[in-house]
Design a protein that fits this description.
Length: 268
């Protein structure tokens, strides 16, 4: 739709990069405010947010390779191509890398794991909303052809050049579906966070709600991922979504069984 925010001569600013950066800043801001409310060290939470951002970028790129190894490993030069660098990657790869980094840093910095994860869950969802608007602007993560009234057709040749989106074909605006979904999930998590809750409630709900939502959206995505296993009905991303739904349920069940954790998030 608008792959470049503006151009001055040969210099241009990509809309995707600007919106992803804004999403990151929004996420850090929300996480800092929620950390303050929970009595967590804001500096450590901010540092963790920066580590998570770098881990998410690397993880998203690695998951792109793992999702289609024949394409990238068959010609490793594609890993260093401009199209690979411009692509945002696969969100779940970034999420898994971010979760692993959060666990490592929380232990190192002495932060309580579940309370820290609860702080970041609404922040990630709301930041992701802005990032998905960047995807829509760039044309990446496009949907399958659709005849619905709200289907969109990309017409900018730069969008096709940068990310490969087909032009002049009406497609499901899956980027906007996700932006709306993550916005609603983020607001729900934020509202739940501000009420008394046990540690692990917010991250557990996030894993269940977002993963279930993403599982459904994947059926509308025009994904290049190879279905797994044996070209079955589900993509690699959908299998990851199932795993994270189960992980979220496990966190919620563990929270329910815990009688020692005090409720947090009370006004104060």
């Amino acid at each position: 739709m608008c792959p470049r925010l503006f151009t001055i001569g040969s210099f241009s600013i990509p809309t995707y990069g600007v919106l992803v950066a804004l999403g990151l800043l929004l996420g850090l801001y929300v996480a800092g405010k929620l950390a303050q409310r929970s009595g967590l060290n804001q500096d450590r939470i901010t540092n963790l947010g920066v580590y998570i951002a770098f881990a998410a970028i690397i993880g998203a790129k690695l998951f792109m390779i793992l999702a289609d190894p024949a394409y990238y490993l068959g010609d490793p030069s594609r890993i260093f191509s401009l199209s690979f660098l411009r692509a945002g990657g696969i969100f779940y790869g970034g999420l898994i890398a971010a979760l692993a980094t959060a666990v490592w840093y929380a232990r190192k910095a002495g932060l309580p794991a579940l309370e820290t994860a609860d702080v970041f869950a609404p922040a990630v969802a709301l930041g992701h909303t802005v990032g998905r608007l960047g995807c829509f602007a760039a044309g990446c993560c496009w949907g399958k052809p659709s005849g619905l009234p709200w289907a969109v057709a990309f017409t900018d040749p730069l969008a096709h050049e940068f990310v490969g989106v087909p032009l002049n074909i009406h497609l499901h605006p899956t980027q906007l579906y996700e932006a709306l979904g993550t916005l609603l999930i983020g607001l729900f998590l934020l509202r739940t966070f501000l009420k008394p809750h046990r540690p692990g409630t917010i991250i557990g709900l996030y894993l269940v709600l977002y993963s279930a939502f993403r599982f459904g959206v994947e059926f509308l995505r025009d994904s290049a991922e190879r279905n797994f296993p044996f070209d079955g009905p589900l993509s690699v991303t959908q299998w990851v979504a199932i795993g994270l739904v189960l992980a979220g349920i496990a966190v919620l069940l563990r929270r329910e069984r815990s009688t020692a954790g005090a409720a947090v998030g009370q006004p104060g």
